Amino acid sequence: MQQNYQDAMAMVRKFGKPDLFLTFTCNPSWSEILNSMEGIQRPEDRPDIIVRIFNIKLKDLLEDICKHGIFRTVLAYIYVIEFQKRGLLHAHILLTLDSESKIRTKDDIDKFVSAELLDPYTDLRLFQIETKCMVHAPCGTININSPCMRDGQCCKCFPKQFKDDTEENVNGYPIYRRRATEPVQVGKYSIDNRWVPHIILGCLKNLMHILMLKFVPQLKVSNTYINMYTKNMMQPRSKYKKKVLWIMMKF
Ligand SMILES: [Zn+2]
């Protein structure tokens, strides 16, 4: 594990600081998982299947990123997989892009990331995935009992403000475009673009995976990210079933 940490630091020295921070989360409703259930089994009864499918999909994603150029040319990547007791299995991935591929302008950002609801008439399935998995549970005055509420405010700062154009750099982070559009009905709530966390367009189209992307803040770039995520590799959490299975299967 110490070696992994040293390798990660060596990669930063050689290729430079990472540009993108991607979170790839397992979805227990993936058809491959559901189709493997027997009888009355539920995904939580078969952690062995969950870790196998997650591993296959993670490899697919890395192949799409590194070989098929979702973000154009990737010089280096580092990832760590987290097996938390609560929540789903997920991987944090740091990507370093070559200088031609770096995402610098707001047009570049809009090409890769969207913080808006997709058009159901263009692709109904993607729209359904987005509204099921990638919409912040309505909170605030319309749902004061939402678990994200702290002292009458959403701790994740939803709903966001409408915005006509993306801004590339606000304290090191982009502010995504969220145009004011007609709300759509999702369950019992009527939601609009203010409730959408950002999604990655290319990956969603190719893989139907649920991904979150952050730009590593340009003004505050440091090795903190590497330290934070490689340190996790060194923390034994073998009390968790999925982690034990992951190690046993030698992924
Ligand atoms: Zn909230």
What do these coordinates show?
- The chain has 251 residues and is of the alpha+beta class.
- It folds into two domains: 1-115 and 199-250, no CATH class; 117-197, no CATH class.
- 32% of the residues lie in helices and 20% in strands.
- It contains eight helices and twelve strands.
- The protein has helices spanning 2-15, 31-34, 47-66, 106-112, 124-133, 201-207, 224-233, 241-248; strands spanning 20-25, 74-82, 90-97, 113-114, 149-150, 153-154, 167-170, 173-175, 184-186, 189-191, 199-200, 211-215.
- The strands form five sheets. A four-stranded antiparallel β-sheet has the order 2-3-1-12, sandwiched between helices. A two-stranded antiparallel sheet has the order 4-11. A two-stranded antiparallel ribbon has the order 5-6.
- A hairpin with a 2-residue loop joins strand 9 (184-186) and strand 10.
- Helix 1 (2-15) packs antiparallel against helix 7 and helix 3 (47-66) packs across helix 8.
- The longest helix has 20 residues, at 47-66.
- The two termini are 15 Å apart.
- The model is unreliable at 205-210, 218-226 and 228-239 (pLDDT under 50).
- Zinc ion (ZN) binds at residues 136, 139, 146, 148, 154, 156, 158.
- Residues 1-95 form the Helitron helicase-like domain.
- This is Helitron helicase-like domain-containing protein.
